[in-house]
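Form 12-C: Joint structure prediction
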Amino acid sequence: MATATPEATVDKAALLEFLLRTGDNALVLGHRVSEWCGHSPVLEEDIALANTALDLIGQTQLWLGLAGEVGGRGRTADDLAYLRDGYEFRNLLLVERPNGDFGKTLMRQFLFDAWHYLLLKALKGSTDRRIAEIAEKAFKEVAYHLERSRDLIIRLGDGTAESHRRMQEALADLWPYTGEMFVGDASDAALAEAGVVPSPESLKAGWDEIVADALAEATLKRPADGYMHKGGRRGVHTEHLGYILSELQFLQRAYPGATW
Amino acid sequence: MYAQMVKTDSTRLRSLDEMDPVERAFQERVDAGQKIEPKEWMPEGYRKTLVRQISQHAHSEIVGQLPEGNWITRAPTLERKAILLAKVQDEAGHGLYLYCAAETLGVSRDELYEQLHSGKAKYSSIFNYPTLTWADIGAIGWLVDGAAIMNQVPLQRCSYGPYSRAMIRICKEESFHQRQGYDILMKMVKGTPAQKAMVQDALNRWWWPSLMMFGPSDDASVHSAQSMAWKIKQNSNDELRQKFVDQTVPQAKYLGLTVPDPDLTWNEEKGGYDFGQPDWEEFFNVIAGNGPCNAERLEARRKAWNDGAWFRDGLTAHAEKMAERRAAAKIAAE
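Section 2 - Result
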């Protein structure tokens, strides 16, 4: 294939936007999941959640590392994670939702995993080799995240009356935050055109199918697609993100320039 | 090890001649360095002591997630965050091996949890101290895991097979933990004056509680003598504490830190350090539930367990439904 390398042809700003969005999703969800450490309902879950958080933090390092390179201002993954303010973060609102009970945490994970899985699967075929390589590694991890969260959603949905109720409530609470995953903008369109990323809209059908299958098996009812909250992908967040960042960034902010 | 002052139910140590033939055969196997396995005969006191010791150790791993978990969301870099997550995950894994080892002695994890939550079972006093700064995460790896290793290395040779094998795995991971703790501190003492001050402050607070981890002097303890005869314990508390101090003081010097003990001096004759005594009154207070974090630690564990009841019940109910459905499908097929 003797085509021009997309690295040279696609819009840098659009590429940076995509990398920040993908890295920030992993960072913020990894942060939320790690809040459970030592507090989960059963020891095996403490181990499994730490594992999920660890995968997500590892992915953050790769995506934000590449974002730093593409951005061309000498910023590292740590600079991007620790020294940006909330309006510069590009994660989905879904991943900054508070953990709630363990059922809500698992439901958030499942709704995100199903989308993340499809995104990474498509990114493995990206025309940008660097993106394809990260996706290759992350996809293996996320395929397992999805297997696990899907399985737990089903078992709890079809468990006791109480576990069913909690899962149904979690679903209702989180559903309005799922629409944002599938709404593209001009920068998505430019990258999709160049074959660098899939368009967000193109992931919807696959996601609907994964979710519908799991919910049916879980005996849970899919909420109606009503109003969908948006904003995270363009830096307009919920109040929760500020608190995440004040914790996450505390040391870097309190001791500027120190190395750790 | 994170077990302190484990009782044995013995009032005095008996000689081989005083034992009946079955117990004598057991003791002779232990003396010969053979491993005792779960299905084999063992004295009831041996079984109970092991359950106490292993469960105390397991509970310590589980409660030990809390002080370190306290800094995961605030770790200063992505790499430090990943390392700390992996470390705390290891601690949970250690808890899991140890509860499994205890299960081979006929006690379930749920029963042991019940003992922890009711306050009947203990865990190491060290986890009742707070982690106040990032340097505390380094200090825990360096000092707390360092003290644990000192105790656990001999336990790899414990007479009880499942415990011994669990300890072999655990020790490998603990030495990685200790290195990561020391590495955190190395980076900080080479950093700004504020970072260095933070490290010294952490050492000031963690030094004495780390020495307390070995427990009070047990040279005169019948429980300790019995545990040694059973090869559940290999060294006295004072021996291990001495070894720990001898190993750690040069490391503190290398970091450019001052060990907060005015009595600390090198004793050429014994080839080790002379050092002061920890405040044993504080130790007994922490053991009795009056440490700075006892109430929070226990409450966090109880809350995790109670809030998670619906989750565990849900999974159990689902498993039962699936079994019923399989049975019904089998009948329908016949």
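Section 3 - Comments
Residues 70 and 183 of chain B are 19 Å apart (CA to CA). Chain B is about 65% helix and 0% strand.
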